[in-house]
Amino acid sequence: MKSKVFVVLLLTVGLVFSVVGAASAGSTLVFGSSGDAVRLDPADVTDGESIQRMDNIFEGLVEYETGSVLIQPCLATSWEASADGTEIVFNLRKGVKFHDGTDFNADAVVFSFARQYDTTHPYNQYGEWSYWGWMFGDVEKMEKIDDYTVKFVLKRPNASIMTSLAMFTVCIVSPTNAEKYKGDAFKNPCGTGPFKFVEWVKDDHITLEANENYWRERASLDKLIFKVIPDPSARLMALEVGEVQGIEHLDPAHFDKIKANKDLKLLAEPGMNIGYMAMNSGYGYIDANKNGVRDITDEPLVKTPGYFEPLTKKKVRQAINMAIDKQSIVDNIYMGTAIKAKNGMPPFMLGYNDAIADYPYDPAKAKTLLAEAGYPDGFEVTLHVMPVSRPYMFDPPKIGEAIQSYLGAVGIKVNIYQVDWGTYLQETEEGKHQMCLLGWTGDNGDPDNFMNVLYGANVCSIGAAGNYSFYTNNTNQELLSAALATYDIEKRAAYYRKSQEMIHENAGFVYLAHARQTVAFRVNIQGYVLHPTSRKFFYPVSVE
């Protein structure tokens, strides 16, 4: 068995070399990714693999400072907010060109925003715009004042809006490119960023090249290639022999080997993330008007496609929480590169409720709860397991197997289900799963980006869900909405603490871990800085 695995790894590495060819050229960087992009439209993705490619193609009005979630000007040079915070006027940067040679201006900004919120917009039909509903539901409109001035109008105050504007969702796309490709624009991305799109060979690689007309100094790299290598061991082998120059989502078992290799370097820091298992509680809603909010009178709850009666019972969900030894998973699978989680956002964030007592590992109590719920002999259930490594879960199959074993010990037979990454995301957003492994890496450093995006009733829409437990409690949503609408820090924190109590009691999630983010590079790669959001910016990077 070991010899067969070794041969497979050698073949994988050989394929890397054959595809990228002379990637050892001095100004080319090949980055080994765990999975492929799903789409290359910044407004129409939710996954990190797509985002890491697009962060080097597109830009927004503002951006994060290097290694921080503090914002600084980008395509906007300055801005001014009204006294009540519901209007922000942005002054746009002049002389910037899209990769297709057309001008960046106010029309492009309005186009990039309006296609997401205006259901009558001719380009609204080409995307699901999930993130818009999750993060930008308070937006009324973006309007043009003149060619290089726009006004951003909110329906109500939003305490996280400026940091949210540095997210990929509101990066600016070329209207001309969108008109040219229409429904296929996601395969032909065109932004203003430091790298231009060259080619996408599905499930193999995406190639970018330096933007020679970039408004800042030209990138040091001539070419940037994202090569798909799903297996962590194969990624490391490709790095060791120099056929890729960087890799992500490392197996902790490889850390000592990387540190001992004088040609490699390991970068690591605490991650702003949560890895979890979600249990489908059974009911969501159809967002008929696509406003990202559940209109209770017009949008009744309906069964999700993955409705499974045992998981609709709170005692069953609590039993499952108690049946899984999370500390063992952290110790033996994460191997000390994570801390055990008990709440759905990182412990260092505003409003984290440390007073909550985690569900203990107690198989005997789990069996008692199952019997009380009417399942003394357990039941059979399906667990969706991610096919790719993520920053919050580097080896989902191993974690799925561990959960399968723990639940089997209390009488619950778990069937493992795997499918390609794009289909996996689609099926879980549609609520087709019974249980699923997923997680989240924070986008902007604000607790709303965890609490409202992952646990609110508004994000239980079937087809664009962010709450994969389908926890539809309206009182909880009111708390989260109130937290977003106030600038009072103490009030916000109190709302989030109360929300976490309700989510914990409902037990729709088994919170597993907060993982450290890690990457490794060849030692001749300089300038890469880990970002708290796990986004990957290669503009400052050079090959020495």
Descriptive keywords:
22% strand; twelve-stranded mixed β-sheet; alpha+beta; 544 residues; four-stranded antiparallel β-sheet
Distance between the termini: 39 Å
- Taking pLDDT < 50 over at least 5 consecutive residues as the criterion, the unreliable ranges are 1-26
Total strand count, please?
Answer: 22
> What profile does the largest beta sheet have?
12 strands, mixed
Mean pLDDT: 93
Instruction: Estimate the helix proportion, in percent.
Output: 25-40%
Class by helix and strand content?
Answer: alpha+beta
Number of helices: 16
Give me the Rg, rounded.
Answer: 23 Å
Q: How much of the sequence is in beta strands? A: 15-25%
Question: Globular, elongated, flat, extended or rod-shaped: what is the shape?
Answer: globular
Explain how this protein is built:
The protein has 544 residues and is an alpha+beta fold. The chain has helices at residues 2-20, 48-54, 106-117, 130-135, 161-164, 175-181, 232-240, 255-260, 314-323, 326-332, 363-372, 396-408, 421-429, 448-455, 474-485, 489-506, and strands at residues 28-33, 62-64, 71-73, 76-81, 87-92, 139-146, 149-154, 195-201, 205-210, 223-228, 246-248, 264-270, 273-279, 283-284, 302-303, 338-340, 379-384, 412-417, 435-441, 509-522, 525-526, 542-543. Strands 1, 8, 9, 10, 11, 12, 13, 16, 17, 18, 19 and 20 form a 12-stranded mixed β-sheet that branches. Strands 4-5-7-6 form a 4-stranded antiparallel β-sheet. Strand 17, helix 12 and strand 18 (412-417) form a beta-alpha-beta unit. Helix 14 runs antiparallel to helix 15. The chain is globular, with a radius of gyration of 23 Å. The two termini are 39 Å apart. The relative contact order is 0.16.
